[in-house]
User: Fold this.
Amino acid sequence: MRLGHEHRGVKLGHAPRDADGDDMRVQREPAVVVAGAAAEAMARRGEADAGDDDDVRNNERAVARADAALVDERRHAAVPAAEFHRPRLAPCIRQRALDFREAGVGGERGRCVKFRSHRPVEAQARWLERSERGAQVRRERDSGGGVAVGGDEGVALAAQPGTQCASARDVGARCGRLGNDVHEWIRMRATRRDPTEPVYEPARARLSVRRALAVAALAGVVAVVAPPRIAVAQNFETTVTDARDALRKRDRARLAALKTQAAVEQNPLSMWVDYWEFTNRINDVQPAEFSAFAERWKGTYVEDRLRNDWLLELIRRRDRATFAAEYPRFRMNDDREVTCFALADAQLSGNDVRETAIATWLAQKDADDGCAFLATTLNDAKLLPQADVWKKLRASVDAGRPRAMRQAAALLPDNGEALVGEIVDSPARYLAKKARASSRTDAELTTLAIARLATTDNEGAATLLADRWEKALPPDLASYAWTSIARQTAIKLQPGASDQFLRAAKLRTKTQREIALSDETLAWQARAALRGDDGKPRWQQVMQAITAMSAADQKDPAWVYWKARALQALARDSQEGASLLAGSRELLASIAPQLGYYGALASDELGQLQPLPPRPAPPTPAERAVAVADPGLGRALLLIGMGLRNEGVREWNYSIRGLGDRELLAAAQLACEREVWDRCINTSEKTRAEIDIEQRFPTPLRNDVAARAKEIGLDPAFVYGLIRQESRFIVDARSGVGASGLMQLMPATARWTARKIGMPYAPGQITDRDTNLRLGNAYLKLVLDDVGG
Assistant:
């Protein structure tokens, strides 16, 4: 729930003493913590939160990597962050481990790599260790030779003559552990075209297929020989992004070729190329092929992800035997369609799972094959009551799921399916020509039509119900119809929702046959009551709505807080005021220690300062080494750095399943150091006992954020809280509804704000960091000024 206008009197603390300084600490400056919690509560409903794991849609190829150190399990050792491109095409990014600036990432298969050095090119060998322990830099001083200051040519960033590590054979013994992989050392020639911008050119632009196959064989990789026309790209990212593009185009031949290429070059993301190639032809795959894939990538995320896809394919085929054998191996087990089919299979196998099966089917909002099969199975066995079918239809119309309505309607007798189809297509026409209430079925269909009409024309539906159908329908159905209309009115923030909910409640008193309301509908009833009459809440309705929620929803901190506030308000005019106030204080005390918006509000109501938890000990070197060594986390960082954020987030989330607090802190620290802030924050937030506030509320981009905030008199902590909640500091974040950038501006909002402050603006600038900050800060200031700060 996000009720930004009810955050009465939140103490935001004070602004950071020096927003640009390195010594800014959240424990001493708690404003950003409270502001972050407030921003969470004020985020507008309907705009996807980029902090949520699956809300950011950012599949375009990145222009530049955020971190040049590659985590690679089976990759040739190479120049750190080598990207083959035409120089000067992309902005510089800093590679902190080596203190170099990489001048750009661009072009498909360019010929050179340019670095800008912050210091003279020294005669050093810098080895990028690539193993399951992650990417680490090993430096060995050269005993002689190399490039001196002002030298024109020499060997740099690679094996140098005269060093202890001049051959790959000596690397494991003398230059740090490199694992059991085979490494190809690339000799580079430094040409001094510009005294401050040496350009390093590889001796060979690509490895030959024969040599790559030899390397793959030595590494123990079984690969299909590639067609002669396919060369092994030294930049493995090209193979992966090309494969992703081929999947988008459904190019089966190209995917097969790239799968081979990924195996030949021992690509660290081969499993993803393999996965995409497999899913592209999954309709034709046989069980033995899936088994081979699962064995090939055993224990990885893509193995279980493909198992999910394979189970869905088996549902489509109605292959119950293969499904039953594979389902127990599905580790994530987070797909309701798969769960539905498993329950149907259990029922058909003689197990009584009716109660669980019906609950699972009712909980599935979208139409799918597996849950439809489950419902049909129960219906054919005469185990699915018609009352539950109507319940499913009502839930589907309220949720705006026409496909689910049609699917459930197939379980109705006679011509019920056809009539529901007409209601989905044109509820107004059905109400005008076919609506009746002479039988229970007719009344149910008419009620569905009114609820369906309310999703697009709630005022018209209210008029029809008030003028004709309220008296014609049974009280329970008339009550539901008003509730459905009230929900739509509340969603649209229109006045009158509370009166409509009240009208529905009065009708419920006239019947013993009551239709249970969903938690989501009750939440909208509570929100409408909180808005009340011109900002004056209807506390009795708030109390009634929250009390009617399920036990789980009543424990949500938002509803605990508002129930406590309702008790406070009702105590003023009650003879049992002391008891109600005591109950209110008890509820507030139960959530006051919780970090978050409602915990902060509860502490404020109790007249307390919310204490911050003590900072845990930082991850030890051993704990950090475990995180760095985790191959799944490494792959996740690679994918995110390449712009494949969805895939990277899934890899990351799979890899942190079941981790304890110390392991989570170490993984979060790894993400923080790589400046992958969304993974840093979300991972740190999963800890239970050991809470690192600085991890959970990082303050990157300090110079930019502080400067833009101070320009217009905003507290930087407030800005940080908003950015953290809206985009998790993902500069090019884009939500499902089109909000973009750090501050998740909608295009229309950006245009309006730019005109308002007289700032030149073009639509393509919305994800530009500085532009987004300027416009976002200006809009936030306008909103705060409008509501009195």
Residues 769-786 form the longest helix (18 residues). Confidence is low (pLDDT under 50) at residues 1-234.
